[in-house]
Amino acid sequence: MNDTGLQHLIAQLEDRERKIISNLLHRRTISKDVNQAFVEQLSFGQRTADRVAAFGGSWTFIFCFLAVMATWIGVNLMGIRRFDPYPFILLNLILSCLAALQAPVIMMSQNRQAANDRLAAQHDYEINLKAEMEIMALHEKIDELREIRWATLISLQQEQIGLLQSIHTHLRSRPSHNE
Q1: Nearest CA to 83 among 93, 75, 92?
Q2: Is the dihedral of CA 39, 42, 45, 50 positive or negative?
């Protein structure tokens, strides 16, 4: 394939694929810690939402939540000052508000994690593509070396055959000792 055809094929590639080819040709690495880069660009609110979601999905939260509920119910059933008597309407309101606030925070965190996963998958694709191109280049080099070795081997064999033929001719032309 000539240079014009190759340039035409490269022009049809996406920007990231052209970037990978450029990195391959200039022997630059493309590996990076995408998680670290992703975390560095998060805003304060996003980091806070991630922490809240992480805490809200932990055993620590569950045990603390159960302790608060047990205390609330215990105080309102047996306490001196019952601020939320049975059927615990205030507790139900607080639980509903907690669920209403916690659900979107968890969804925001999950959406960010999905975006991070897409970024990591794209980066994995780029690395895999570069590795595939490197492997193809190595195969070509090995094929070239094999062809050179075969040519050298054939040349040596032809030289050996020529030497054997000259020895054979030389031995035939000498008179035999039995005569």
Answers
A1: 75
A2: negative
Instruction: Kindly compute the dihedral angle of the four CA atoms of residues 101, 107, 109, 110, in this order, to the nearest 10 degrees.
Output: 160
Tokens matching residue 168: 């054979």
Is the Cβ–Cβ distance between 147 and 58 less than 8 Å? no
Alpha-carbon distance of 115 to 121, in angstroms, equals 10
Percent helix, strand and coil across the chain, each to the nearest 5: 80, 0, 20
Tokens of 10: 């490269």
Amino acid (one-letter) located at 31: S
87 preceded by cis ω (within 30°)?
A: yes
Query: Residue with structure tokens 């609110």?
Result: 45
With a threshold of 0.90, does the pTM exceed it? no
- The DSSP symbol for 6 reads H
Closest CA to 137 of 17, 21, 1, 18: 21
What average pLDDT values come out for the chain (179 residues) when binned by 10 residues?
68 76 76 78 88 90 94 90 91 94 91 90 87 88 94 96 94 74
Q: How many helices (H) and strands (E) does the chain have?
A: 6, 0
Angle of CA points 143, 147, 149, to nearest 5°: 115
Contact 129, 20 (CB under 8 A): yes
